[in-house]
Amino acid sequence: MQETRQNRISRLLQKELATIFQEQTRAMHGVMVSVTRVRISPDLSVCTAYLSIFPSEKGEEIVGNITKNEKTVRYEVGRRMHNQLRIIPEFRFFIDDSLDYIERIDELLKNKQP
């Protein structure tokens, strides 16, 4: 039962975070931030979000800015989800580099072919 609630809350947080980042990056032309995966702790107190950032060269800088403004993001999530959650979780943001990893593997496979 607990896992179902965790999954539901994770999907809800992913949707809200994606909306917030979309609104925030609209002013930054040429930058796109998408939330690829959200994990939440069993007690719903810590949320780990994985972000995919385009262009990937700006990834570290953007995640650094988001981490610095974590309290603002948490406040915004709380404002939007105050009816669904009693406690708004702490957020931790990481870069999801799985697409870069896939690209690198594809490149290696292309170069290896005789």
At the first level of CATH, the class is Alpha Beta
- Portion of residues in beta strands equals 15-25%
> What CATH architecture do you see?
2-Layer Sandwich
How many E-type strands?
Answer: 3
What kind of sheet is the major sheet? 3 strands, mixed
The secondary structure category is alpha+beta
Assembly state of the chains shown = single chain
Q: What's the SSE pattern?
A: HEEHHEH
| Total of domains | 1
Number of distinct helices: 4
Helix content: 40-55%
Question: What topology, given as strand order, has the largest sheet?
Answer: 1-2-3
Family: Belongs to the RbfA family.
GO molecular function: ribosomal small subunit binding
Keywords: Cytoplasm, Ribosome biogenesis
Main location: cytoplasm
Explain what the structure shows:
It is found in: Cytoplasm. One of its GO terms (cellular component) is cytosol. This is Ribosome-binding factor A. The chain has helices at 2-25, 59-68, 70-81, 98-112, and strands at residues 32-40, 46-54, 90-95. The chain is of the alpha+beta class. It has one domain: GMP Synthetase, Chain A, domain 3 (2-Layer Sandwich), CATH 3.30.300.20. Strands 1-2-3 form a three-stranded mixed sheet. A hairpin with a 5-residue loop joins strand 1 and strand 2. Helix 1 (2-25) crosses helix 3. The longest helix is centred in the first third of the chain and has 24 residues, at 2-25. The chain is globular, with a radius of gyration of 16 Å.
